[in-house]
Design a protein that fits this description.
Shape: elongated
Radius of gyration: 32 Å
Largest sheet: 2 strands, antiparallel
Structural class: mainly alpha
Order of helices and strands: HHHEEH
InterPro entries: Sipho_Gp157
Protein name: Siphovirus Gp157 family protein
């Protein structure tokens, strides 16, 4: 029972430290302040295990907030896209109705209101190709050639010890947060 109580106390202290760090992070003005704060938090040897837990907790909380904000952003984008599509559909219906009225002779090419004018104009000609591009005469087609580096092949060559002139292969470091001990 004693080890369970000790574990609870450690989690409570670690959570308290994480809250302290979170509150301090909210007050930082720029990246250099954040860097100094994180470094000073982790460099206290007597409290380093708790600091590691607190920093990892805060980093994971930031990742969770990023995911939540990204989900809200995606939802808003979808919401706005639907609204735009509804408005476009309404505008297209109005335009089709005006064209039908023009075709039936109910309105002229140019119709004047009190302060606005509606004109019916032809768009520039456009072309729809009904056959395969290869079946068109050569003078009516063009080929577009795009040359791009094969970065996967260059990386594979690097892994095999082959240097490709004019390239540089590098590996960035990343931080991985996770649970390290049995916390039951």
């Amino acid at each position: 029972m004693h080890s369970v109580e000790k574990t609870r106390n450690q989690f409570k202290y670690s959570s308290t430290r994480a809250v302290e760090l979170w509150n301090l992070l909210k007050q930082t003005k720029d990246e250099s302040d954040l860097e100094i704060l994180t470094a000073s938090f982790l460099q206290h040897k007597s409290d380093q295990e708790v600091a590691i837990d607190a920093v990892a907790d805060v980093a994971e909380q930031i990742e969770a907030e990023i995911a939540a904000i990204a989900a809200r952003k995606q939802h808003l984008v979808e919401l706005h896209n639907r609204a735009i599509e509804r408005l476009k559909s309404k505008k297209e219906t109005i335009d089709r109705t005006i064209i039908k009225l023009h075709e039936s002779g109910a309105i002229a090419n140019k119709t004047e209101g009190l302060s606005r004018t509606i004109k019916i104009q032809n768009n520039p000609p456009s072309c729809q190709v009904l056959i395969q591009t290869e079946d068109l005469p050569e003078e009516y087609r063009y080929e577009k050639v795009e040359i791009k580096p094969d970065k996967k092949a260059i990386t594979q060559a690097w892994k095999q010890g082959i240097e490709v002139e004019g390239t540089e292969v590098f590996q960035k470091q990343r931080v991985v947060y996770g649970l390290s001990k049995d916390i039951t």
